[in-house]
Amino acid sequence: MQNNTISCCIVVMLCILASLITGLIGVAARVVPSITVTGVLYLTAGIFALFGNSIEHEKISRMSRKPRTCTDCTCYSLVKTPEEYCSSAYRTVSAGWSLIPSWAAAVSFLIASTFWLCLSRSVRIEKSKSML
């Protein structure tokens, strides 16, 4: 699960870096396709941030509870650990502070993609009016 979360974070970083470049070009030169690509990249970054956060929540959920259906299962189903190590005296699992900014970033990427796509539409309308 950790590899999937990291992969999602890498995709988010690449999308934001690419959208920074295409967004600057699009706004500076008033290029509609570049602005549209920036909006789609922000949308992709938001979706992959949602995926990464969901995977992280599932990982925390699996590590913090023992499955009720399986009496032989240990506290963390991916690695066989002795039952005595599953008590709270040996380990604690919590979400931590980093998930709150991560969810805020995911929502802000999705909102920013809406603004970029609206900007793309307004620039396209403005350019078509100036051609007449």
TrEMBL record:
<keyword id="KW-0812">Transmembrane</keyword>
<feature type="transmembrane region" description="Helical">
    <location>
        <begin position="7"/>
        <end position="29"/>
    </location>
</feature>
<feature type="transmembrane region" description="Helical">
    <location>
        <begin position="35"/>
        <end position="55"/>
    </location>
</feature>
<feature type="transmembrane region" description="Helical">
    <location>
        <begin position="97"/>
        <end position="117"/>
    </location>
</feature>
<keyword id="KW-0472">Membrane</keyword>
<protein>
    <submittedName>
        <fullName>Inner membrane protein</fullName>
    </submittedName>
</protein>
<keyword id="KW-1133">Transmembrane helix</keyword>
